[in-house]
Amino acid sequence: MLLGPAEFMRIEIPREFDRLGAVRIYGLQKIYELDAGPEAELPGQEDAVVRSLPAEAIYGVQREMAIVVPVRGERLKLIEGVLVGIPNSCLVIVVSNSPREPIDRFFLEQESIANFCRFTRKQVVIVHQKDPVIGAAFAAGGYPELLDERGTVRNGKAEGMMIGTVLARMLGRRYVGFVDSDNYFPGAVNEYIREYAAGFLMHGGDHTLVRISWHSKPKIVEQALYFAKWGRSSRHCNHALNRLLSHHTGFETEIVKTGNAGEHALTLELAMSIRYATGYAVEPFHFIDLLEQYGGAIPSEHGDMRRLIRICQIESRNPHLHENKGEDHIADMIRGSLATVYHSRLCPPGLQQEIDAELRQGGYLKEGDSLAPVHVYPSLDKLDLGQFAAVAREAVERRVAAPASAA
Fold first, then answer.
1. pTM, 2 dp
2. 8 Å CB contact between 138 and 144
3. Segment 25-68, tens digit of pLDDT
4. pLDDT at residue 2 is higher than 60
5. pLDDT value, residue 381
6. pLDDT tens string 92-129
């Protein structure tokens, strides 16, 4: 069920935060009311433990936000459900890496999205990850690292996210958010994006990262619906990140709850300045890169610790239900996320040994195998955006799914 129009969202202020250098990680914030009614906020509530955020302010942030939806062969109805949940005020950027043969899935996606836009008048840009024009645009912008031997963008979710980020910057947005295309609940998607806006409103600044912690993940256990709090990959990843942070602060912590959060949003200033890791390392590597670059524990190219990096974590209220991709998928996620910590310059030998033992005990690493390092791309701020836009604009303009294009 989709959320109705809300005059106010009621959300608690952060109760705690951990800090390493210029990186401030806030504890999990709880949503008390998705729709708190139309009453005006009373004077003096600025210092209350719960904030009421007006709908006008939330919509104002959403108008400056692009939502990137990476797609790879998902069912058309699933993709449409995700689009249904995205507020109309947001620009939607669909980056598809679906197969073009023997059946052209991308053509079907374009047709379905164009028809959807005909009824909603939603702004949707859809591009294919392997479009030669997109590859040529990255080459023209001086960012060949993203390209394969044929000059097209490499496969992978991270690569699709990077395309979406650059397009959001090119199209003048201030914020970029990400939503997976296999989410079964449009209401959850709608809530996530409103919470992105709430995070930016509460924390401000040009270097803010908002991450969503799912309220629960429903599954069938003994013929009954069971609302699990944490997935297996999340448990491993959050524990490792908290152990890493504890080592450098000297105080044990459990502050990190969103190590694997696929649902997250960044200010474009931050999104263009961080590095991206490939595969299932992309989300946890945001933590690692920010701690390495701005934590002050090791030398980095960012010596100015006056730039405050805010990582905001918000717990959603809708359950999260996505497609079950099997045990191999879970194992790959666990290895990928833990590799970000294991191979970080911040990781002490003791934690490396703990991670190695944990993976072997769980059967995720076999005898004689070692945990492979993740591939890391340089930050997107090395890209010449003007040169990129000069080439990419053709691909973007011909892929806009506007109402007229579906006639």
1. 0.91
2. yes
3. 999 999 998 887 776 555 445 557 888 899 999 999 999 999 99
4. no
5. 94
6. 999 999 999 999 999 999 999 999 998 998 889 999 99
C-beta separation of 125 from 93 below 8 A:
yes
159 C-beta neighbours (distance < 10 Å), count = 23
Which of the four pLDDT bands, split at 50, 70 and 90, describes residue 404?
very low
- Contact assessment for residue 297 and residue 284, using Cβ atoms and an 8 Å cutoff: no
Q: What would the 3-class secondary structure string for the chain be?
A: CCCCCCCEEEEECCCCEEEECCEEEEEEEEEEECCCCCCCCCCCHHHCCEEEEEHHHHHHHHCCEEEEEEECCCCHHHHHHHHHHCCCCCEEEEEECCCCCCCCHHHHHHHHHHHHHHHHCCCEEEEECCCHHHHHHHHHCCCHHHECCCCCECCCHHHHHHHHHHHHHHCCCCEEEECCCCECCHHHHHHHHHHHHHHHHHHCCCCEEEEEECCCEEEEECCEEEEECCCHHHHHHHHHHHHHHHHHHCCCCCCCCCCCCCCEEEEHHHHHHCCEECHHHHHHHHHHHHHHHHCCCCCCCCCCCCCCEEEEEEECCCCCCECCCCHHHHHHHHHHHHHHHHCCCCCCHHHHHHHHHHHHHCCCCCCCCCCCCCCEECCHHHCCHHHHHHHHHHHHHHCECCHHHHC
State the chain's maximal CA–CA distance in angstroms: 65
- Phi, psi angle pair for 41, to nearest 5°: -70, 135
Per-residue pLDDT averaged across 129-152, rounded? 97
Beta bridge partners, 92, equal 67, 124
Kindly tell me the sign of the dihedral angle through the C-alpha atoms of 309, 315, 321, 326.
positive
Q: 186-203 vs 55-62: helix axis angle to the nearest 10?
A: 100
| Cβ atoms within 10 Å of 300's Cβ, excluding its own | 15
- Kindly indicate the confidence band of residue 228, based on its pLDDT and cuts at 50, 70 and 90: low
Position 127 scores a pLDDT of 95
